[in-house]
């Protein structure tokens, strides 16, 4: 799998590496293979996504590919819990990820997969459901408990999901304000992430996407 130049790799190893991760990440560690990376995320105890990352099995543990800008906050969260397990989280000295995609190509890859990759601006602000993770297998509701699971499960089984996630391919190169407004000037959404003219748009209320919407005064196409 090819990543962007902005990614770095971490290693989780030890006899209880799987047990440790099972209580933190949103996918089942038993379903992670050594063949390719799978997307996953880790959340706060309030069910907000701290980081999205990619994970695969390696000898005696797991390799994680994550945006370098989120490495420190990811490590700070995980190191609260790892002392209770025979496991170690460390930098990957080899860091042999294939970093062959420029940021725009990486964004196109994410759009094709429908995956919003949380960044430093959106970390700990959105629930997995607001990012549509429940529909793209970034959350496994059968795996048992993980950090934030109670809040996330409540939204899955009891919540009425009003928000929407859309894609745009005509974003301005430079955006002063990431907020999206309707023709009356009311804020109805925001740009979650973008590279060049491509990006993900979040609407708090899915009904708002039916009107003309604007970013920095320019009308926006969404699909």
Describe the overall structure.
The chain is an alpha+beta fold. The protein has four helices and 13 strands. It has a six-stranded antiparallel β-sheet with strand order 8-11-10-9-12-13. Strands 3-4-5-2-6 form a five-stranded antiparallel β-sheet, covered by helices on one side. The protein has a two-stranded parallel ribbon with strand order 1-7. A hairpin with a 4-residue loop joins strand 9 and strand 10. It is globular and about 60 Å long. The model has no long low-confidence stretch (mean pLDDT 93).
CA-based gyration radius:
18 Å
Cross-sheet strand order for the largest sheet: 8-11-10-9-12-13
Number of distinct beta strands: 13
Number of helices, where a helix is a run of at least 4 consecutive DSSP H or I residues:
4
The geometry reads as globular
Largest sheet, strands/sense/barrel: 6 strands, antiparallel
Structural class: alpha+beta
Distance between the termini: 27 Å
Descriptors for this entry?
alpha+beta; six-stranded antiparallel sheet; 223 residues; 4 helices; single chain; five-stranded antiparallel sheet
Topology record:
Layout: E1 2-4, E2 7-13, H1 17-22, E3 38-43, E4 49-58, E5 61-67, H2 71-78, E6 88-91, E7 98-101, H3 103-113, H4 149-158, E8 164-168, E9 179-182, E10 187-195, E11 198-203, E12 213-215, E13 218-219
Parallel strand pairs: 1-7
Antiparallel strand pairs: 2-5, 2-6, 3-4, 4-5, 8-11, 9-10, 9-12, 10-11, 12-13
């Amino acid at each position: 799998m090819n990543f962007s130049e902005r990614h770095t790799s971490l290693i989780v190893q030890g006899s209880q590496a799987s047990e440790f991760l099972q209580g933190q990440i949103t996918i089942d560690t038993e379903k992670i293979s050594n063949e390719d990376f799978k997307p996953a995320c880790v959340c706060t105890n309030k069910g907000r996504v701290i980081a999205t990352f990619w994970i695969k099995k390696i000898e005696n543990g797991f390799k994680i590919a994550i945006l370098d800008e989120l490495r420190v906050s990811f490590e700070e969260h995980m190191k609260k819990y790892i002392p209770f397990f025979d496991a170690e989280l460390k930098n990957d000295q080899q860091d042999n990820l294939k970093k062959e995609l420029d940021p725009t190509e990486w964004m196109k890859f994410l759009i094709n997969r429908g995956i919003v990759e949380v960044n430093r601006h959106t970390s700990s602000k959105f629930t997995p459901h607001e990012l549509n993770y429940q529909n793209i297998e970034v959350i496994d509701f059968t795996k048992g408990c993980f950090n934030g699971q109670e809040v996330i499960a409540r939204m899955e089984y009891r919540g009425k999901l009003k928000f929407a996630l859309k894609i745009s391919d005509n974003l301005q190169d430079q955006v002063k304000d990431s907020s999206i407004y309707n023709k009356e000037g009311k804020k109805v959404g925001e740009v979650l992430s973008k590279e060049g003219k491509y990006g993900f748009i979040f609407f708090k209320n899915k009904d708002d996407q039916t009107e003309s919407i604007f970013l920095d005064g320019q009308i926006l196409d969404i699909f």
